[in-house]
Amino acid sequence: MQRLAFVAVVLAACLGFAAPVAAVGPAPRIEFHQRTLANGLRVITSPNRGSANVAVEVWYDVGARNDPAGRSGFAHMFEHMMFKGTASTPSDFINQLVEATGGWNNASTADEATWYYEEVAASQLERLLWFEANRMGSLVVNDAHFHSEREVVKEELRQRVLSDPYGRFWRYVIPEATFTQRPYRRNAIGSMEDLDAANLGELQAFHAAYYRPSNAVLVVVGAFDPARLDAWIDRYFGPLKNPAEPLPPEPPPEPARTHMSSVTAYAPNVPLPAAALTWLAPPLTDADAPALYLLDTILSSGRSSRLYDGLVYEQRVASQIFSNVDLRHRVGLFQVDAYAAQGHTADELIAALRAEVARLRDQPVSAAELEAAKTKLIAYTLRRRETVDQVAGQLGQAAVIEGDADRVNVDIELWRKVTAADLMRVARKYLADDVRAEVRYLQQPAAAETGAADAPTADAGPAPAAEPAAPIVPPAGAPATPVLPTAVSRALPNGLRVIVARSGTVPMVRAQLTVTTGSEADPAGLSGAAYFTAVMTPMGAGGRSAREIAREAEALGAELTATGGWEAATVTLSVLHDKLAAALPIMADVALRPAFAADEVERMRKQLLDGLVGAYGDPQQLSALAASPVAYAGTPFGHAQGGSPASLKRIQAADLARFHAAYWRPDNAILVLTGDISPEEGFAIARRTFGGWRRPDGPPPAPPTAHATATSRAIAVDLPGAGQASVQVIWPAVPRTDPTYYAGLVANAVLGEGFTARLNQEIRVKRGLSYWVESTLTGRRTLGAFIADAQTRHDAAGQVATLIEAQAQALADTPMATDDLAGHKATLVGDFYTGIETSEALTNVISSLALYGIDPNELRHRAARVDAVTAADVQAFARARLGPERANVVVVGDGAAMLPTLRPALPGLSVVPVDRFDPDSPTLTAP
Asked: What is the DSSP string of 848-878?
């Protein structure tokens, strides 16, 4: 052991790791109670008096591993069916119930489990329990629901798999290369062929087999009275019966891998080669699992990780790196992956990935690196315990996947006990070179390309069946007052505004420095300069190199990021409270004293250009890049916010330094601290850390102004091989301080926020044309944005664009009913207040309010502001802002598949081939 310790110290010195940091303090336990009903339903409850909300989750021990032969995607398809109605409730009743009372809900399917989750005000708890018991015991799925939702699932498959340039790589190629047996070889989302082959009777039999009390876990976390909760659970879930038949047998186990294998897969529209190495891993409950999680952390967590440092930073062969340990009931998966940088190959990635894994097998991890990995992993886990739904999710996963809810507390202690010797032993045991599977993922040769295979289903299915009458729903409880933070603000002598808002129950602090100038101030011909400046700040600052910044910050368990937006740039730190004093000075160096070293600028330039190559192959990302130049031509927003290939090549280190000197100054910045920190502590540490930031002479440059003109343009970008079309409709909108801003927020909620919003109902629910469609309102200083977007099959892109504009026009033409308006208001307010339970969302809200000169405590009055909006206000906003004369449409997809139906729907459409796409050009077309 003495010799091992000596080797670790030597390696730490060689690799540049500092001495081990002090171990992170004890993690607060998640306290919970569990019991089992007579019918076998396991119940886990955890009170949280720090929230006025409650989360309800029902986990079923059934997932994609249980898909029948020839029916991949079956468990996932059934997850969708669970929203379609019960013997006493109509289709989508749960969505209406939850959103009308300000909550949110969803569901997920994985290989090992399917789970349904909601978060609502505590007053709605009994109603949720009643409904979840209802759909567990009396689900009804008819032919109409089955056919319509199957089309939605197909759109989800197109969006998540076929449209994403690397969707097939993750969802199909890697599982098929890793596993030989059916349970895990197929992805949970399924295939078009298997979805078409499924029938209603099979789905009903699937529900009868697996959706039973004895195969489920109910989790409730939040503000509740324990005795009353137990009584409700007994009332609604106690009478449910299990089928007489036993659960179907589990699929056959995956055999041990005995040899190395290699697969090369091809797909259309792969911007850069990708590669992966995979190994079989043990079950989640295995004693070696903690070491595998730490190996995964060492490989890919943060910029100090081995894969990033080796493949992206040093060798520059990769543009992105990943690793993943996916441990399950019976057998797991360990993988390392990378996307190539321009000019590099999948073979180079394979060689580099193998070398990094070999280091783990052959050399002991240093004490410093091991301690840093433990701190990262614990901090990561605690960050995801800020809300009641996050805690409920961790309890449900532990109970179903690990078999014991208390693993939420045990796992952290097991990570602490892992030694360097454990890591080397486990790497040698599971990550042996002779049992690896190699995967190469490449662009399909031109001769083999067949275009976008997304023809619509010919059979639209039967007419909708009659729905049950309105159910008798349990009464709501007494409304609870949201637990809202108070923001306290002061200005330092140098002009820096500091705002502190104590929040949450997790021992984490979030600090965000906002510079109140962004890409709107990009110099002419240098689009992306503001963004480039922001992302360069952690790449060497205050006498530290980029590597030193990453290692020192991440050794403290901190997440330190920097980014730029249209009107601001931010440097953000998330760290355990007991590490704040050590981490905040690193953040200050990054923001105040960046080096802009020439070699680091070139390294970042290459990464940004590689990122654009990937974005130009993704319909959704490409449409986002096109939106601003189309809708805001001639204004400070009329260019590519992150830059174009041409502009990024022109920007020099001196340009970045000039931009930083001009705008990154204390009297042009706001520091927000949230989480486990008092105002007194926050102001004191802000003075110590940022008080010496010198304010230059003279005022900061005034931000540019932008005024919209009434324009309407329609542009399509032809991206051959795209798996789906992305549709965006953009209307220039109001500034954040405009008196009609809250009317716009409510109009947005009605159109595109939530499942019950009009766009989602028209496009997804009624027609099955998209997996999800939504709209957003962004308020800025002088010119906001109202954007509706959806992804759909190519032949439906014109129809979707027309439906979006029609719904906006309907909002302008017809006043809303009072009840309908009230439900959407509740959704809007509820989403906001549940969102700011996280320190990330709270920090962003406070920073945004301060950016626009609004009192940060405006967040406490959000409900009142929304409630004051009338139906006439919403109609007036829609008439003034959402008319067809102001609508700009951007569609990205495979031209051969979409243009025949798109041109008739969008008269005057301009088409831009992707190989000539230039976001710096007013026409989006390079000369």
From this structure: HHHHTT--GGGGGGHHHHHHT--HHHHHHHH
pLDDT in tens, 153-200: 999 999 999 999 999 999 999 999 999 987 899 889 999 999 999 998
**Residue listed under structure tokens 């959000």:** 862
The predicted-structure confidence for 216-235, as pLDDT tens digits, reads as follows 999 999 999 999 999 999 99
pLDDT in tens, 410-438: 999 999 999 999 999 999 999 999 999 99
Is pLDDT above 80 for 542? yes
Residue range 823-851: mean pLDDT, rounded: 94
Tokens of residue 518, six digits: 């962004």
Instruction: Please classify residue 103 by burial: count the beta carbons closer than 10 Å to its beta carbon, then call 0-12 exposed, 13-18 middle and 19+ buried.
Output: buried
Give domain status of residue 644, yes or no. yes
**Quick check: is 793 in a domain?**
yes
DSSP 725-776: EEEEEEEEE-BTTSTTHHHHHHHHHHHHSSTTSHHHIIIIITT---S-EEEE
Domain count, the chain: 4
Cβ proximity of 62 and 114 under 8 Å: yes
Q: Of the candidates 187, 218, 251, which is a domain's last residue?
A: 251
Residues 796 and 824 in one domain: yes
CATH code of the domain containing 109: 3.30.830.10
Does 214 fall in a domain? yes
Q: What are phi and psi of 669, to 5 degrees?
A: -145, 160
467 within domain boundaries: no
Q: What is the mean pLDDT of the chain?
A: 92
Q: What does 298-355 look like in DSSP terms, one character per residue?
A: HHHSSTTSHHIIIIIIIS--EEEEEEEEE--SS-EEEEEEEEEPTT--HHHHHHHHHH
- Global pTM? 0.93
Residue 810 belongs to what domain range? Answer: 714-916
Structure tokens at 629: 């130049």
Query: Are residues 543 and 594 both part of a single domain?
Result: yes
Half-sphere exposure (Cβ direction) of 45: Cα atoms closer than 13 Å? 20
The maximal CA–CA distance of the chain, rounded, in angstroms, is: 82
